[in-house]
Design goal:
By secondary structure, the chain is mostly helical. It has four helices and no strands. It has one domain. Helix 3 packs antiparallel against helix 4. Keywords: Membrane, Transmembrane, Transmembrane helix.
Length: 149
């Protein structure tokens, strides 16, 4: 249950954090399921860097699960786990970017899309979650439906 000294100061931040972490957990779980259990493997272009990719999968997925659990436990370590998993996700995406960038027909367009999507789906949500940690408790969203008589 949420209490007065919670780690995220408003309900939207709490909900957004849960959805953000849960969606990345689903993404990495699906890819791990395909790689390891269904034995789909990696494309030929990624076989040279197979070990770093597997290591990053085994680092990011458990960190995201621990982050998800820490959200509900109201643990302040959630921010540490979230930021570490963000760091590993950026490395993970950079590895895939380098391999694809070498084979891209239009490298400038590919670079801009890489930067845009990493900002949109990884960095900006994490920065917002870290910012919401410091918002004051007296928020308009929290006071919807309450009377000040």
């Amino acid at each position: 249950m949420l209490h007065d000294e919670r780690i995220l100061k408003n309900k939207f931040a709490y909900f957004f954090t849960i959805v953000f972490v849960f969606c990345w957990i689903i993404f990495f779980a699906y890819n791990m399921f395909n790689l390891f259990l269904m034995d789909y493997g990696l494309k030929e272009e990624y076989l040279q860097i197979k070990i770093p990719i597997y290591i990053l999968y085994f680092l990011i997925f458990p960190l995201l699960v621990i982050t998800f659990i820490s959200i509900f436990r109201e643990s302040r370590k959630m921010f540490i786990y979230l930021n570490i998993s963000l760091f590993f996700m950026i490395i993970f995406h950079a590895i895939f970017f380098v391999v694809r960038y070498q084979k891209a027909i239009d490298p400038t367009r590919f670079l801009l899309s890489y930067i845009f999507f990493n900002l949109l789906f990884v960095i900006v949500p994490t920065v917002l979650i870290n910012y919401w940690k410091h918002l004051p408790v007296d928020n308009e969203i929290e006071s919807i439906g309450t009377h000040n008589d």
